[in-house]
């Protein structure tokens, strides 16, 4: 850190705002928001172990600026504005700014026209969508026109002209309002039926298309009959996406992220009129400094050119109030942002998470297993283990002031997360705030389950036990395991402050090289255990609050 940055960090205010990182060419490489500028920006320049992506950015910082805001909400919104404007290299969440198509109609027009648009405006019109994936907005629009003779032209109806009907009228694709061949009232009835279809009522449009298909077939117009048959099939496919337990007016978007510490994948699922309109999986390169803040920033960027739904579901514990307030301002109405705990919405999140996990596994497999095997080999050498730690188990405790105490057990197999073997524990016998005793209870129960040989995960013997904590946590667990089946299993602890590795019966910790594969592997499993414990704790705490 140069003297210029050192002084700037020292002078940072303790207020909310946005910070702007620049490289030696003066280019903006990252924009972030902070509840307390001094605390957040200082973290980047502290001499501590950082993830590779964070360290790479910090190495490129030559200067920074900041803008003080009245509140964290203002900082959140300003951050999004600056990211869209400058497209910084390290804000790599949604740089493409892809705009998905909507079907638009303004029911206040004299003779409304349906059209496909990609920009949503506050113009009094109705927008249906967004449509992406297999559901094509243009095909939907053609389906509407096949059933209801609505205009497709850009004629103005302000000045009445006595024109002859166009070819679309002869083909039955338009009712020729420009020639006065249909009244405004009758035309708007057709518009209403088309809007009902887009709102989830497929029955009438299916009957109309089926009748037209049969007539086309009888008159040997097989090409038209096949086209109508395909459109009926599309409507049936859309109907099959109906979620029985959801109301027809439900507007829900789901954002679920699955991460293993190295890779991350995002599933976005769109639900409108009680149906799953689309589901999309993408590789999600999370930004800085946390997955929670990355997803929050992503969501706000996502809705910069899209309609905001009534409800947003996720599996990541965001700052819900902050995100909800920002999106409510965009929508002009209240927006609910939650992690559902039960019911159909919980099932929908589980479905989305399953899709994200599938994408994550594909991304991991593309990267190959070589790097993970090298991590395991490097750790064996660094710790002087007798055999490769192919099955590693890491334990962590989470609670708030001794309440809702939980423990987590995460498993890495050959250097990668094995989520099917993860287990969680409610602390049953410990009163108050005592992490040492909580860890002892968790490892005692783990060993008991191992002796029973019933549970698929618990029946496996670990090659290495990892404890999230320092020398004290390690000593308490070693004492607990002395007379158990795990007494000969290698055990270590990883202290977060200086990333020091403690081993039993040694006062001196091991300091692994900051850029070593062995330290990276330990950090990955420790961070995953911490995430898993916190997620379980928050879930338990939410249920407790609901019960009260």
Which percent range fits the helix content?
A: 40-55%
What is the tally of beta strands?
18
- Structural class by secondary-structure content: alpha+beta
Percent of residues in beta strands: 15-25%
Calculate the mean pLDDT score and round it.
85
Radius of gyration: 29 Å
Q: Give me the number of helical elements.
A: 16
Q: Major β-sheet, in short?
A: 7 strands, mixed
Outline, from the CA principal axes?
Answer: elongated
Unreliable stretches covering 5 or more consecutive residues: none
Give a brief outline of the structure.
The protein has helices at residues 3-10, 37-44, 52-59, 72-86, 137-147, 167-170, 184-198, 203-218, 222-240, 291-302, 320-331, 343-367, 370-383, 435-452, 471-481, 517-547, and strands at residues 17-22, 28-34, 63-68, 102-105, 115-117, 126-128, 251-259, 264-272, 275-283, 311-314, 336-338, 391-400, 403-413, 416-417, 423-426, 464-468, 491-495, 500-502. By secondary structure, the protein is α+β, with helices and mostly antiparallel strands. A hairpin with a 5-residue loop joins strand 1 and strand 2.
